Amino acid sequence: MNWLHPATVGHATRRKLADVGHGARLFLRLVALFGASMRRFGLVRDQVHFLGNYSLAIITVSGLFVGFVLALQGYYILQRYGSSEALGLMVALSLLRELGPVITALLFAGRAGTSLTAEIGLMKAGEQLSAMEMMAVDPVRRVLAPRFWGGVIAMPLLAAVFSAVGVLGGWVVGVLMIGVDPGAFWGQMQGGVDIWKDVGNGVVKSVVFGITVTFIAVLEGFEAQPTPEGVSRATTRTVVVSSLAVLGLDFVLTAMMFSI
Prior knowledge:
Radius of gyration: 22 Å
Structural class: mainly alpha
Oligomer: single chain
């Protein structure tokens, strides 16, 4: 097959545009189902527990070790300029602005996103979604929307836990192991972290990443081929596309937030 033939290129372009349009329609429908999902909050609560609680272990351990590494690297860099007292501020800003939301989103995509895709894909392969439609039950309202909003709620909470544990890890290494003055560690952090510019921007990033990763996971599962190979490919695409989307959006959001 000649991939450079105009007919082939046109067909591929039209198919991709159709996929984008279908994804946009599904996203708008999920957003419109926010009220209906909140009225049946038990379904959303179960998904928050499934996605958030089961991801808590890897988020906590990763945040702790990231805090360890930040404190070690930051201390040796700041010591060159006689600013080791600013270690707490450096650790907090690094976690709140960038590493907390980004690394949490990447871990969330690998742990919770793949679970969502595999679960929905297996439901489609087992014809459970088709059975719901036969019983006049909307699978988007009953299956996709609670999982989508559960992921959107869970992601910022996990990012907050990651940042908090990371700051604690930085304190353990900086104060207990290296010997930085604890008053300077916490005082510089409290005086230099702005609640709106730093914490608020991190929360916005985590919400955007939560929407992006969860929607990609739900969409890939809903559109997966109803075969074992199709579900495995959809699960792989969830991790790859979500990771690239998070990194790209991080650049865009950072450029927007800190240039205003």
